[in-house]
Amino acid sequence: MLTGKDAIYSQPQAVEPFRFDQAVAEVFPDMIQRSVPGYATIIDTIGQLVGKFAQDDSHIYDLGCSLGAASLAASKNLKAKDCKILAVDNSAAMVERCRLHTKAFKSAAPIEVICDELQNIDIANASVVIMNFTLQFISPEQRASVIDKIYQGLKPGGILILSEKLRDTQTMANEVLIDLHHEFKRRNGYSDLEISQKRSALEDVMRIETYESHQQRLSNSGFKEVVQWFKCFNFASIVAIK
Ligand code: GEK
User: Fold this and answer.
1) The dihedral of CA 47, 53, 58, 60: what is its sign?
2) What is the DSSP string of 58-120?
3) What does the pLDDT look like over 59-92, one tens digit per residue?
């Protein structure tokens, strides 16, 4: 599979709202590695969690799967029998490439790649649901019903792995985290122009919340225990246990 280097915002441009289109799908592995601190660790740990929590005869959902990195990590670590992995994304360009990635891989469980809004997907018989940096792209008004639906579709003892970019309620502390993230991107070769144009492109598309709002929403849905297992700058990953 050909994947390139992300240079989408390297030239000055009239910045349009960010979309997961063909140009983004082509450079996505490079883009996410250079933009999300700890991405490789998070994918690796999602695999470990699937190894521990997937139950026999159940479904594993990867909502907002992009090119299928989390689904592949799930498949590599799966010990439970007769599971099915359902990978969902609403970007046709992502789904097309995800199908190629997952087909090329000899998976322990069938991986079905679905092109649809995750809001339209029924969640049933699930032992693990993964939302790795996806909920932040769902409109805030729809988030509670998405989390409720996931909770309802999980089996007892099942988990939701939720990774998100966060906002801190403390103004100065929030700025510290944003600066550290921008420095992380600079060190990974992004210019100040790329960082600021990407920031503008994402402004209305990615609506980030505080850790406390996520925690509250998860416990409102009924999750028994919620733990932040990863945090680096303003990026976190949470495990919520039913
Ligand atoms: C990874 N999880 O590599 N329905 C389905 N998919 C959606 C929706 C929606 N309503 N909205 C956005 N997406 C991946 C990375 S990227 C995160 C996830 C990022 C999809 C969108 O098309 C994109 O592929 C993905 O969610 C978010 O582990 O780029 O910051």
Assistant:
1) negative
2) -EEEEET-TTTHHHHHHHHH--SSS-EEEEEES-HHHHHHHHHHHHTS--SS-EEEEES-GGG
3) 999 999 999 999 999 999 999 999 999 999 999 9
Task: Specify the residue with its C-alpha closest to ligand 1, atom 29.
Answer: 32
Are the CB atoms for 89 and 109 separated by under 8 Å? no
- 194 — pLDDT class (breaks 50, 70, 90): confident
Q: pLDDT tens digits, residue range 89-110? A: 999 999 999 999 899 888 889 9
Distance (angstroms) between ligand 1 centre and the Cα of 89 equals 6
Is 66 near ligand 1, meaning CB less than 6 Å away?
A: yes
Determine if ligand 1 sits within 6 Å of the CB of residue 20.
yes
In the chain the beta strands, taken as DSSP E runs, fall at 59-63, 84-89, 111-115, 126-132, 154-165, 225-232, 235-241
Distance between CA 7 and CA 179 in Å, rounded?
21
Q: How far is the CA of 179 from the centre of ligand 1 (A)?
A: 24
- In sequence order, which residues have a C-beta less than 8 Å from that of residue 106 and are 6 or more positions away? none
Which atom of ligand 1 lies closest to the CA of 132? 2
- Mean pLDDT over each residue of the chain, to the nearest integer: 95
CATH 3.40.50.150 fits 39-167+206-241, yes or no: yes
Q: Is the pLDDT score of 206 beyond 80?
A: yes
Q: Is the CB of 177 under 6 A from ligand 1?
A: no
CA of 62 relative to ligand 1 center, distance in Å: 10
